[in-house]
């Protein structure tokens, strides 16, 4: 179809739409000067409809009353069926959601139980570590003070006595620093207390009126039987 004939078709379609509100091949072809076939006019009419955005609505009021009633009943039935399907789907979705929520709650409860058990186990391990560290620290403390007592034993003369203050002045600087590092600075009072503990166990020293003197040097067997407090 040439451009001149296409423009004629477009004008005829515009007029038909303005008069009747509907345009079809059956009503348009008779208006063309040379008529035309469906094959010839159809593509041009489709182009016109696309340009105009043509989409006529079905006019129910033009249908016979019995057909209108039937269509209304069908529409009502379809609407009711759609509502029933939507309600059923909503019910299924709610049930599925409830199942999912219950499963999630069960998993959460299980996870919390495991967390509680893990925290209890961790607390027990921490307590065990704390006790082990305390035992280790006591062992280190006993070993340190035992070295100090052996050093004092060597400082004391074979005969005679010395006060704690006199002994303190003769201790090695490293020994004094070691006590300070253990947060037990060596003072005459501290040294007197530590040595008195050994005296009560019969280890290293004897105590007289004027100070401490050499006593019995503990053997390894006795040391293993009962070590005095640090």
Automatic annotation (TrEMBL):
- Mind listing the UniProt keywords for this protein, alphabetically? Coiled coil
Which domain of life does the protein's organism represent? Bacteria
Coiled-coil regions listed in the entry: 101-142
Q: Where is the KfrA N-terminal DNA-binding domain?
A: 6-122
Please indicate if the UniProt record lists Coiled coil as a keyword: yes
One Pfam family hit: KfrA_N
Q: What is this protein called?
A: KfrA N-terminal DNA-binding domain-containing protein
Q: Which organism is it from?
A: Methylobacterium tardum
């Amino acid at each position: 179809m040439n451009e001149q004939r296409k423009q004629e078709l477009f004008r005829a379609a515009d007029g038909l739409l303005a008069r009747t509100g509907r345009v079809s091949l059956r009503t348009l072809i008779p208006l063309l000067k040379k008529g035309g076939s469906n094959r010839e006019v159809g593509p041009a009419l489709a182009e016109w409809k696309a340009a105009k955005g043509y989409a006529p609505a079905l006019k129910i009021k033009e249908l016979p009353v019995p057909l209108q009633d039937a269509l209304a009943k069908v529409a009502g039935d379809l609407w009711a069926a759609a509502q029933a399907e939507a309600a059923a789907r909503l019910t299924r979705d709610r049930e599925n959601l409830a199942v999912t929520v219950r499963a999630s709650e069960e998993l959460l409860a299980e996870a919390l139980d495991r967390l509680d058990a893990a925290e209890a186990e961790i607390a027990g391990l921490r307590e065990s570590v704390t006790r082990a560290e305390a035992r280790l620290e006591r062992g280190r403390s006993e070993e340190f003070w035992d070295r100090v007592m052996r050093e004092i034993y060597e400082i004391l003369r074979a005969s005679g006595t010395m006060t704690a203050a006199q002994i303190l002045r003769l201790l090695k600087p490293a020994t004094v620093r070691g006590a300070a590092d253990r947060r037990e600075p060596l003072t005459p009072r501290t040294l007197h207390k530590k040595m008195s503990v050994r005296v009560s166990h019969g280890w290293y020293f004897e105590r007289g009126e004027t100070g401490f003197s050499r006593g019995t040097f503990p053997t390894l067997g006795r040391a293993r039987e009962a070590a005095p407090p640090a």
